[in-house]
Design brief:
mainly alpha, 62% helix
Amino acid sequence: MMTERQRKFREQYKSDISPLYNGLVHIGVMYVVGIAAVIYCLSQLTTATWEYLLIIPVFLAGNFVEWAMHTCVMHKRINVFALRAIYERHTRQHHQYFTDNDITIDSSKEFRIVFFPWRVLLTLGVGGLVLGYLASVIINPNAGYIVFLTMVMQYMIYETFHYCCHVHDNWFVRNVPFINTIRRHHTAHHNMGLMMHYNMNLTFPIADWFMKTSDLDRGLLGHLFNGYSEKHIKEELKPIIKKYRNDDASVSLDGPNLTSDEQKTLNRAMAR
């Protein structure tokens, strides 16, 4: 059940959204541009063969970049304009709007708190162009296009999976592999006690498994295909999860005010 604190934050946030904002236009432009970029890259490939294998290292690198951005920028305030803005939007807004008590949206107006602004896709596009160009020079043009389209596709997957985490529960998100896993994974991340330390992946929890920042105690395949199961949640985390799900008295816009014992528990759970 949504707390009074969360309810008031939601009401204030929604009242501050410009009447000119259109959620469908927001995501429509993003998907049209992203899909067009992927189609263009595919159309430029000429007899590509082994170059498709580059998808694997680019995908894995992207998974760890996703983890690092979430851990080191979105949840750590860095006093540099763009980075500070990311922190403000994520920790001080997104995590106040959504908790593991209520993680869902009810209208397209709320797309603003779920999807990144267009400038993120633009920034990713510039970065992808640079890396794609370098790959085309060092390897060949096919490699450049594959690097770029993999980065764009990974971003599209990120946004799609994140959206699936914040819609109301339904057959699709409950049963589709990977999506059901990341939905539970991300819901747990929105627990106020865990939000600054655990479950930082938002596509596939590979980096979380490797970096030991997952709330689950199981192997890589178990992480990827965990679905909605809560059977493998680390036992030492359960009291913290329960406390911060029901009590937000010790929570601020910058996250939970953890006790020293709670911080030690979180650190200890990461160590194994």
